[in-house]
Amino acid sequence: MVLSRSGGLLMANTNSSKRTRRMAREPMARPAASAESGSAQDVAVREPADDAPSKGQSKIEEVLSLLERAEGATLDELVQATGWLPHTTRAALTGLRKKGHSIRRTKHDGISRYTVVEAAASR
Questions:
Q1: C-beta of residue 116 within 8 angstroms of C-beta of residue 68
Q2: CA–CA separation, 93 and 71 (whole Å)
Q3: 8 Å CB contact between 112 and 105
Q4: Over its length of 123 residues, how does the chain's per-residue pLDDT go in tens digits?
Q5: Burial of 116 (0-12, 13-18, 19+ CB in 10 A)
Q6: Which residues contact 106 (CB under 8 A, 6 or more apart)?
Q7: Could you tell me the pTM of the whole model?
Q8: Where is the composition biased (Basic and acidic residues) (predicted)?
Q9: 59-122: what fold?
Q10: What distance in Å separates the CA atoms of residue 85 and residue 63, rounded to the nearest whole number?
């Protein structure tokens, strides 16, 4: 037993295998200038770099480009191009229909081909 400064009794830690708890990461220290002034001018704002490489074509744009071809695209071609599962690819076609694209499905030798109707009409 240990006596505290106020005169009360404290129990000694008998479990010596317990480690002290640490935080997952140390808190970030704020700069003294911005903490004291609190003005918005002291806080640096990051702007996107103009020389950043542009993103490539999104997967849905890639699907549209395949569907706009004269021969259209099969489900297997769309799956291979996007890396999606077949049910996800069909759901993407449904989403395109809901966004206003007219998608025609034709069957040749038991294989479905999908084409965008507007692309053929606008050319």
A1: yes
A2: 17
A3: yes
A4: 566 676 666 666 666 677 777 767 776 677 665 545 555 555 555 555 555 566 778 999 999 999 999 999 999 999 999 999 999 999 999 999 999 999 999 999 999 999 999 644 444
A5: buried
A6: 72, 112, 113, 115
A7: 0.52
A8: 44-58
A9: Arc Repressor Mutant, subunit A (1.10.10)
A10: 13
